[in-house]
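Fold sample X.
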Amino acid sequence: MSGGKPGWEGRFIYATFEELKSGLTTDVYFTRTRKILQKYGLLDVEVHMEITASKLPGSYKWGVYAGLREVLKLLDGKRITVRSLPEGTVFHAKDYYGCKVPVMTIEGPYGEFLELETPLLGFLASASGIATKAARVKKAAGDKLVLSFGARRQHPALAPFVEFYAYIGGADAVSAVLGAEALGIRATGTMPHSLLIIFRGILGDHTLGWKAFDEVIEKDVNRVALVDTFYDEAEEALLAAKLLGEGLWGVRLDTPGSRRGNFEEIVREVRWKLDVNGYRHVKIVVSGGIDEDSAPSLAKAGADAFGVGAAIAAAQPIDFAMDITAMKINGEWKPIAKRGKLSGRKQVYRCDECFIDHVVPIDSDVPGCPKCGKPMRPLLETYIDAGKPVKKVEDPHTVRKYVLKQLENVSLT
């Protein structure tokens, strides 16, 4: 089948690494801007651009900044200076005084990177949206496990990207094989309904599928039986527990409340039946429409782990914007910005004790916290200096720990 324009036939419709780097995913007005600036000899005008969140999704008070490592790959080799919040920083759209918080700044000849604004914002918007939603679910889940099951809810080429930033945001494990590989961890999952249906159809007993899983799959993989295929969930859970005994780590309920009654009541009944029959060790994994709103009540009912799909994988992007706020004129930086934006080069400071931010001009003295008065620390760090990489992004496991530590300072409302 044709993919449309000749040249797209025989390939999936997505951009390659080289196409992204060369700016082919840009909005067309940037290619037209290049033509105009080139004609007037203005491509080498040095600009200072800052990226800020125009707004956060819904009623969110904070977001998790992510996608920096992708942006640095995109900008590698460009004659620019990049300063940024560290990846995984829990950020606010505005500081204590209502000023928009720059999450990244870029300085250099505009012609070096003008077509890259579109993919740059795309990386930050989608990665931060995914990480933020994962963090919210993890915050809501408390000490319960959060498993990213969302690879099928996005373009398959994005599966590693989705899983990577779900993990950074706080997910404890991911299910997509390539996503787990990118993280250097083992993929986590249970079993599909198709396995049990095949055993029921061919051998007449779907519970043999649980036994087959136990016999075939590596012994260091947790045995989690899917228990909502044919019978009542509580009855299937008890059957699985009797069949696998101490070897059964958990049971999974993929039963949204819209299917039969109240999901919380189903979880509560399964927990009760397992407990009174001596299977307190068996954990309950729930999946199907889980988000930060449903997790707390399900946890209270007895859920031990949450398999989260679309809520994380198809999370609303963070609405970032990129604007010129200063230009170098006759060798000096001059503040200039469109209306509605604060001109000048800036630094962001944070009080870790009060967890509030303060945006100030870049040459200002270190401010004191407006609440406690203690000196604040700068957040924007230099990652590329005049085209030279000077700082690396931390590995995803370190970033995830950083996110989880910050979540102690924020609430969901």
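Fold sample Y, listed below.
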Amino acid sequence: MEKSLQELAEQIDATVEGNATVRVVGMATIETAGPTEVTFVANRRYLKHLETTRAGAVILGPGVVCDRLPVLRCADPYLGFAKALRLFHPWVHRATGISPQAGVHPDAQIGAEPSLMAGCHVAAGARIGDRVTLSPGVYVGEGSVIGDDSFLYPNVVVREGVTLGKRCIIQPGAVIGGDGFGYAQDVTGALKIPQIGGVRIGDDVEIGCNTTIDRGALGDTVIGDRVKIDNLVQIAHNVRIGDHTIITAMVGIAGSTEIGVGVAVGGHTAIAGHIHIGDGVSIAAMSGVPGNLDAGKVYAGIPAQEHREWRRVIGTVPRLPAMRKEIAELRKELDALSESLRSKLSDK
């Protein structure tokens, strides 16, 4: 696919500075791009490469000067890069039909233009939408629904009673609808609580490799529209996650927690159960969240606190040894002054 810079600019909401007739065929990093490729700079540490890059053009944000090559100027260069890359590498569904080595129950419903590959299994009562791809090793459980245009990579498990929306992408090894971790204790040990709920996942959701989303104990675990979940994330039973939320790798969310709309959760964060996280919250990586978080704020630390307060706390930590020494010295001086004062009073 070849485009002029003018054509590309119109499709990514950018303006051209320089020769708009230059034709390009793809995207590349600023270090490796050639004369027929477009690159971008979204992080200032890469600005030094503008003097040496061989790219045919560069996507830049406001205020960044470059006189060596044509510029595609846009408000958010990273967003511009994403749009351009999608143009050069569009998603194309290739219907391959139902492989003879696919295990499809006679009572399952399969939509138009399917791609059910060898080794996948579709259980009784499952409904597979139009243009769905099930890769080798995918299991779709009894009564589950896979929405139109969804793509399930190898070894994805969708257990019974799961509803997956349209245009979802599930990366290899993800498990949706496994039993929640529910037990009641008595003198004989832990008694398993049947997990009879399901999982409901909205449209345009992406779920990363080896992520697990547990089914509800009674009601459903719910993931909203356009939620993006990274690799190795654990979402426990009856969690509810609002639309547009982004959860990065190795996050753990305990049961029955509600996460609002447009929340961003940094990697390695642990979130306790039965709490509420408000809309628009941002949580820094490696935080621990034991309680509710107010909407629209930025939090960090263990336990999580507002980011400004956390910065003050963390800035104090390196000074603690010196402060401890100072306090010990002051205590000695205070003890000496107290002893001196007692001696003077006893002499009177």
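Sample Y note: Residues 97-309 form a domain with the UDP N-Acetylglucosamine Acyltransferase; domain 1 fold (CATH 2.160.10.10).
Also: The chain has a mean pLDDT of 96.
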